[in-house]
């Protein structure tokens, strides 16, 4: 998965190494949309116009893809036999790998060797959109500089290209997203007379009721390496909010952070939310059948309940993201989603951008992708595929589409993974019996320390 932070999209998570989940949080790419790469025109937006290297029409392009995306690239090659391609398989940035960055730095020093197209994570875009050394050009080409039509870029789900955007330009195209929503076991909810919650307050109240009436059943887990993306990101907690390109606000005492921590602490104390991760060893066998609800990404249905917990078909249903009672806005988190970048060094930008557009926007390929496409029209084709919805107890189309446009953009894409501090500080604290509320200061310090090592200024207001 892109895997995700994918993912995050990115962003990669160790939980995805679990045998139960073989997916990549960044979907396997799409198909038939062709970009028109006009290398003779310049955009007037942004700080400077992009100057392509000398173009060689028909020249071979080199494509780096992970194993999950490899079949899609091969499908493009098969359907476009006139395009000369060299395909290289690499880890795609999985689990925080810095392989791509290290190789690009070597190519910058050597002055040659760059691939034309690469699959990566949103974290990769943070360095790829900037020069790795004085005088060098950023690795990623600004796609909005007349390489990809604005109409195509505008076709992605609201906010899904935010991780691609730096200095008023768009440096990547989003392969997939992993919007967070509410999953629930419909037959059990109906049997027990429970109403599906629509607010966080109803979710908490129902969780406490479940703990009392049906001990052992759960409404969620905070024990995975990406659980914070489901809960605190959805709660609009400013844990990772860039106020400027070089300034990170991390304020875990913000009311939107503390109220989510308190709600989760209450449900943990009631034993309605597990501190053991859904993807941890033994959970599926011992507790998978007792998950009444789960707040998590769109891939949970197929890859957690179906593949991991082996829940029979027509039991698991999806509902839209929760809101806070009394508030008019809905926001949700994202757990995964990869990106495609075109190299600014490419001598065949037309073929490179055509490939990336095909991979991310085409119905034919995206309809069979493993996870939810970021491109709106391709997502409709994905939802129309019986393989992506026949397993569920309800039509997931509406909650999926709603959540896709409600991912909060205030949780910023940074040069470091948002999972490290959660995994190294918060999860051990929960295991030792500490509450989330009392762990917030330590979590914030760890985030701040990581940010400073990556060159960020850190503020808490």
Provide structural commentary:
- Helix 1 links the parallel strand 1 and strand 2.
- This protein has 16 helices and 15 strands.
- Helices cover 33% and strands 11% of the residues.
- It is of the alpha/beta class.
- A 5-stranded mixed β-sheet has the order 2-1-3-14-6. Strands 12-7-13 form a 3-stranded antiparallel β-sheet. The protein has a 3-stranded mixed β-sheet with strand order 9-10-15, covered by helices on one side.
- The N terminus is likely disordered.
- It is globular and about 70 Å long.
- Helix 6 packs parallel to helix 8.
Largest sheet: 5 strands, mixed
The tally of strands reads: 15
Which consecutive residue ranges, at least 5 long each, have pLDDT under 50? Answer: 1-46
Percent helix, as a range, is 25-40%
């Amino acid at each position: 998965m892109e895997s995700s932070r994918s993912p995050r999209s990115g962003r990669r998570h160790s939980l995805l190494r679990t045998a139960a989940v073989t997916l990549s949080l960044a979907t396997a790419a799409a198909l038939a949309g062709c970009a028109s790469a006009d290398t003779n025109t310049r955009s007037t937006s942004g700080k400077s116009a992009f100057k392509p290297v000398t173009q060689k029409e028909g020249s071979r392009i080199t494509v780096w893809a992970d194993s999950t995306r490899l079949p899609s690239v091969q499908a493009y090659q098969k359907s476009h036999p006139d395009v000369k391609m060299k395909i290289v398989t690499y880890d795609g940035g999985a689990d925080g790998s810095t392989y791509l960055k290290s190789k690009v730095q070597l190519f910058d020093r050597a002055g040659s060797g760059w691939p034309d197209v690469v699959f990566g994570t949103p974290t990769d875009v943070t360095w790829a959109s900037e020069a790795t050394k004085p005088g060098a050009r950023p690795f990623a080409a600004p796609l909005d500089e007349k390489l990809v039509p604005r109409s195509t870029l505008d076709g992605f789900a609201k906010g899904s290209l935010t991780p691609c955007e730096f200095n008023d330009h768009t440096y990547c195209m989003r392969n997939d997203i992993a919007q967070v929503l509410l999953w629930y076991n419909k037959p059990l909810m109906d049997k027990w007379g429970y109403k599906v919650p629509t607010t966080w307050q109803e979710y908490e109240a129902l969780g406490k009721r479940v703990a009392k009436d049906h001990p052992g059943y759960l409404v969620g887990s905070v024990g995975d390496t990406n659980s914070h993306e489901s809960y605190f990101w959805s709660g609009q907690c400013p844990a990772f909010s860039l106020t400027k390109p070089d300034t990170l606000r991390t304020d875990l005492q913000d009311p939107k952070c503390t109220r989510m921590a308190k709600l989760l602490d209450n449900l943990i104390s009631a034993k309605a939310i597990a501190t053991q991760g859904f993807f941890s060893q033994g959970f599926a066998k011992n507790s998978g059948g007792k998950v009444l609800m789960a707040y998590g990404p769109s891939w949970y249905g197929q890859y957690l309940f179906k593949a991991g917990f082996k829940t029979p078909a027509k039991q698991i249903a999806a509902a839209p993201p929760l809101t806070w009672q009394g508030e008019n806005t809905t926001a949700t988190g994202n757990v995964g989603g990869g990106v495609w970048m075109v190299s600014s060094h490419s001598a065949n930008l037309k073929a490179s951008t055509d490939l990336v557009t095909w991979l991310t926007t085409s119905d034919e390929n995206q309809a069979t992708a493993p996870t939810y496409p970021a491109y709106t029209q391709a997502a409709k084709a994905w939802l129309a595929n019986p393989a992506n919805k026949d397993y569920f107890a309800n039509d997931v189309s509406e909650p999926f589409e709603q959540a896709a446009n409600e991912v909060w953009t205030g949780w910023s894409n940074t040069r470091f993974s948002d999972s490290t501090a959660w995994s190294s500080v918060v999860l051990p604290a929960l295991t030792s019996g500490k509450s989330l509320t009392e762990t917030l200061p330590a979590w914030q310090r760890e985030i701040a320390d990581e940010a400073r090592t990556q060159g960020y200024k850190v503020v808490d207001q």
